[in-house]
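Raw record, unedited: Polysaccharide biosynthesis protein
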Amino acid sequence: MSDHPETPVAPVEAFEPPYYVAVFATVRTPDQTGYGETNARMEELVKDVPGFLGMDHAQTPGGLGITVGYFRDAEALAEWRDNAEHRAAQRRGRADWYQNYTLHVAKVERSHGFTRAPG
């Protein structure tokens, strides 16, 4: 146990709809050689997409990983989908890192959030 408090974790804020989400759910293979570096590069790269709003990640103890990307409009999501480096990472993921995955894309029509006041 560390003497330092953990950095607070919070989900991406609620945005004014409509906007889009891409929900990427994965189970990875045992060999993750190169995954961490590629994942970090993708997280850097997507931030440069105009209309990218943020990203949430979760991992279950059983190995299910979920990443949710938030995009202002369909054009921003398409720009990310069509990015050449992202496409190369997708190919590598299918060849090496993912046992299986699903991708769900949806238009958000309602969004709200809650934050407990300190104290």
